[in-house]
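Good day; I would like, with your permission, to put a structural problem before you. A protein sequence and the structure tokens that stand for its backbone fold form the material at issue. I would ask you to consider whether the tokens describe a fold that such a sequence might reasonably adopt. I set the record out below, with my sincere thanks for your time.
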Amino acid sequence: QVQLVESGGGLVQPGGSLRLSCVASGYSFFSYAMAWFRQAPGEERGFVAAINWSGDSTNYGDSVKGRFIISRDNAKNTVYLQMNSLKPEDTAIYYCTPYPASGYWGQGTQVTVSS
């Protein structure tokens, strides 16, 4: 079965950086695009970034453009999200998912940006 395990979240001060990882299993990882979404308390889950199967095409939500970088390592079945210049409004649970609209989600990893 499809499994997605996110990690790398934590508490960071505004302006800081974090690198999230998501290890996928149970399907042909290299065959699918991947995306990161996030959900803040009281809000709907929203798109953050996506990357195609080969890693040479990426797409970002407007709120993270120029600050976040999505990448992948197909040999490790892993997708990453490098988050720089973090803001308090980036606080959320971050999820990875095969994209688009796979319906598969991991447990997420909490990112808190606060001084």
